[in-house]
Structure formats: C-alpha cells, structure tokens
Amino acid sequence: MKIPFTPLTHLGICASVLLFATTGCTRQKDAEIRIDFDLQWDGSHFEVKNSAPDGQGRLLRLERLECYLSDFAIHDVDEGWLAIDTVARIDFSSYGSHALLTIPGEKDRSIDGLRMGLGVPRDRNVNVDPASYSDPNHPLGYTGSAGLHWGWAAGYIFSVYEGRLLTEPNIPFTYHAGNDTTFRTTELMWEEPWLLECGGKDHNITLVLDAYKCLHGAEDTIDPEIDPETHTGNNLPLAIRWVDLYQNAWSIQP
Predict the structure, then answer these.
(1) How much is the pTM?
(2) Confidence at residue 26, expressed as pLDDT on a 0 to 100 scale
(3) What confidence score (pLDDT) does residue 104 get?
(4) Among residues of the chain, what percentage have pLDDT more than 70?
(5) 44 pairs with which residues across the strands?
(6) Domain-by-domain residue ranges, the chain?
(7) Beta strands at 31-41 and 159-165: parallel, antiparallel or unpaired
(8) Residue 106's pLDDT is what?
(9) Which pairing describes strands 31-41 and 44-45: parallel, antiparallel, or unpaired?
(10) What is the C-alpha separation between 143 and 139, in angstroms, rounded?
(11) Which of 2, 80, 167, 184 has the smallest C-beta neighbourhood within 10 Å, fewest atoms?
C-alpha cells in the first residue's frame, strides 16, 4: 500500500534524519597519541655515539641505548587511569622511533598524566616464542625483537645501555636488564590538563630520557670502571641498581 506524503510524514523523515545524525556523533571514534623520544645528557640534548663527561669528569661514549616500553595508561581527570595495551621498542639511535597509543572512546577527554612500564609484561616475557606473532615485525615478533631476545627461558631484554669510558685504556661497559624482577613503572603528571578530542589524530607528547641520570642519581651512582657489566643473570644486584636509576631518568618535555 502506498503511503501518501503529508507534512506529518515529512516531519517523521526529518526526525529520523536528525536522530541518525545525533547517534552518529556518538559512534566509537579512536583518538591517537604519538609519543616521541628525546635523549639528554645532564639536561642538554645528546645523541647516541657522542661523548660527554661523567660525574668525575671522564669522557664517556654512549654507543647503544634501546628499551621496551609497555603497560601504557593515560590519566583522565574524570575517569582516572585508562589502560592502553601497547608494546613499543625504542631505539634512541634511530630517528623517528616512537610509540603510538590508540585510545577508544565516544567523548573528549582531559588528560593530565601518562604512565608506562619499563620492560615487557610478565605474561609476555618468558616462555614466549617470538615466531608465534603473526606479524614478524611486531616489537616482540621474530624480526621486531632481533637483538633484544635471549631465548624462551630467559625472555626479552628490557633495556640496553652500552658504551665505554674514554680513559687509557678504554673501559667498555654493558648494562642489560631483562627479567621480571627488573620491570619498573614510571608515572609522569602535569599541572594543566590538555584536551584529547574524540577521534583526534594529531596529539603528540615528547618524553625525555637523561642518559647521565641513568648512571648518576641522588642515592646511587654506577661507576663503569668498578661495575662495568651486567646481563641480569650474572649480576642481578647491578641490574637492579641500573633499572632503579633508569626509572628516575625520565621526564616529559614541557
């Protein structure tokens, strides 16, 4: 049966269109935050392969600095911490190395904090075959983890800090942390919340790691001449000292 077109019918069509438009605005719209990384040495910009004086005035050359970051969360002023399931491998010698956080939601958010794990979560660390990832380039996959995986039993290397003291003779140092005991979390907050628009893709945060503070802290200092090496298993106390300093070496760029 043909329904005649009347003003009431027209009103119903308009209402339906308005309802569709309104509900369309509340559909799931993922927002993205790109986290970039900057390296410093005692507060000044620094690059891997460069050298700078340590706390005793000796020149130190940093030759490799890499890490895994995971267990991210952002702090919503109204809702508190919102977990984001992302694992990133950051190579400080590689330009553009970054982490991308995808935040699902149907509304704008006010953000005033970021939290991240320094390492690989316990349930993804040991007894995991990197080849089990369908994407070999995943940070924990076969190709993506190359150089940062010890094997099934030992798991992933959470952080790598290598270089040498440019003394005569040179003194090489190597700090590799990589079991569940050395997993740490760092939390960075800021005073003025910023707006994370629903569906926005242009949000950037820059995190800073101070490589000097990875060796020099308020309560501990690692002297590479005295403590030159840990692969965690062979020197767990030194690995723990390293990650405790490393944990406190992070900041957020204003």
Answers:
(1) 0.88
(2) 52
(3) 86
(4) 89
(5) 41
(6) 30-252
(7) unpaired
(8) 83
(9) antiparallel
(10) 8
(11) 2
